[in-house]
Amino acid sequence: MNFPEVKRKSRKAPYHKPDAVKELERLAMDEARRKYPNHPAGVLAPRIFRDDSANGLTQCIVKYITLQGGFASRINSTGIYNKKLHKYIPGTQKKGIADVMATFKGLSLHIEVKHGSDRLSDSQKKIQDEVTQSGGLYYVARDFTSFKQWFDNLIPATKWIKNT
Predict the structure, then answer these.
(1) How far apart are CA 63 and CA 47, in angstroms?
(2) pLDDT, tens digit (0-9, with 9 covering 90-100), for 27-59
(3) I need a labelling partner for 155 at 20 to 30 A (CA). Which of 13, 61, 79, 98 fits?
(4) How far is the C-alpha of 113 from the C-alpha of 129, rounded, in Å?
(5) 71 Cβ partners below 8 Å, 6+ apart?
(6) Domains (range + CATH), the chain
(7) From CA 80, how far away is CA 75, in angstroms rounded?
(8) Which residues contact 75 (CB under 8 A, 6 or more apart)?
(9) Are strands 107-113 and 137-141 parallel, antiparallel or unpaired?
C-alpha cells in the first residue's frame, strides 16, 4: 500500500531565553508586586517576554525603558486599512520613522527593530542621519541583550543631565 508523502514543516531551533530577557521578566514582576501589594504572590500572572520576533523584541524594549523611568512608545507606521477601497491608506508620519520613540533623562531615543535578515531601508537611513545630526540617539536593535547593553551604558552618561 502506497501512502502519500507527508510534507513536514521545518522546525526552528528551540528558543533559549537570554539572561537579559529573564532579568526583564523579574523587573516587570517586581513592578507588578509593588503595584498590587495586597495581592498574594501566587495570584499575579507571570510577566513573560520573548525577543525572538520583531513584535516580541519591540515589547521588551518598550517595557525595559519604562521600567527604568523613561518614556517609550511603539510607532505604528503601517497606515489604516480602508475596507471600502480594499487597501492601506498611508499614515501621516515620515517614511522610515523608527519603531520605538523614547525619552530617557532628557535624551531623545529612536530605536529601529530589525529581526533576522531585515536591513535598514534608504528612508530609514535618512531618518537615522536626521536624528543623529539633530542630537538624538538612534539604535538598530536586533536582540534584547545587545539593546539592554547599549541602553544601560546610557545611564552613567546621563547623570549630568538635570531633570526639570
Answers:
(1) 11
(2) 999 999 999 999 887 888 999 999 999 999 999
(3) 98
(4) 16
(5) 65, 102, 103, 104
(6) 53-157 (3.40.1350.10)
(7) 13
(8) 93, 97, 98, 99, 100, 101
(9) parallel
Please report, rounded to a whole number, the percentage of residues in the chain having pLDDT higher than 70: 89
> Comparing C-alpha atoms, which of 159, 147, 123, 160 is closest to residue 57?
147
Asked whether the beta carbons of 44 and 36 are under 8 A apart, the reply is yes
Place of cell 539604535: 139
Q: What is the C-alpha separation between 70 and 47, in angstroms, rounded?
A: 19
DSSP three-state, residue 2: coil
Here the cell at position 158 is: 546621563
Overall residue count recorded for the chain in this entry: 164
Number of H helices, E strands in the chain: 4, 6
* Residues 49/15, Cβ–Cβ less than 8 Å: no
- Mark out the alpha helices in 13-143 (DSSP H runs): 19-35, 54-67, 122-133
Q: At 45, is the secondary structure helix, strand, or coil?
A: coil
Angle in degrees, CA 89, 95, 96, rounded to 5: 130
Specify the amino acid at residue 116: G
